[in-house]
TrEMBL record:
Ferredoxins are iron-sulfur proteins that transfer electrons in a wide variety of metabolic reactions. Coiled coil: none annotated. NCBIfam families: FdxA_Protbact. Keywords: 3Fe-4S, 4Fe-4S, Electron transport, Iron, Iron-sulfur, Metal-binding, Repeat, Transport. It comes from the Bacteria. Its cofactor is [4Fe-4S] cluster; [3Fe-4S] cluster. The keyword Mitochondrion does not apply. One of its GO terms (molecular function) is metal ion binding. Pfam families: DUF3470, Fer4. PANTHER family: FERREDOXIN, OXIDOREDUCTASE. This is Ferredoxin.
Amino acid sequence: MTYVVTDNCIKCKFTDCVEVCPVDCFYEGENMLVIHPDECIDCGVCVPECPAEAIFPDSDPAAEPQWLRLNRDYADQWPNITCKKEPMPDADALNGLPGKLADFSTKPGEGD
Ligand code: SF4
Ligand code: SF4
């Protein structure tokens, strides 16, 4: 099992999640974070830290197979992120809005 990041993370980067992960398995894209499924130890401590409620166990219906695939694909391509940074400008305004997948960027973030 693993935890996966889903669509409400797009354009967020509150990044509270990365600070609590004991194995540093978050990876940063231009406007979303993902979890590496082979590195996550299923501890669940990141879930209550995410203000966008975007993290789910892969057994949850909210974590559809497409999200597990997306997390795996981009965790292999994007840089690791372990430190909290400033959220994206519209993070609060866009929190919870539907249709965020249309804004997903495949480009890597800066990492740390
Ligand atoms: S706190 Fe949640 S929504 Fe924000 S970057 Fe982390 S996983 Fe994404
Ligand atoms: S469930 Fe635990 S190991 Fe997995 S990403 Fe969240 S904090 Fe990290």
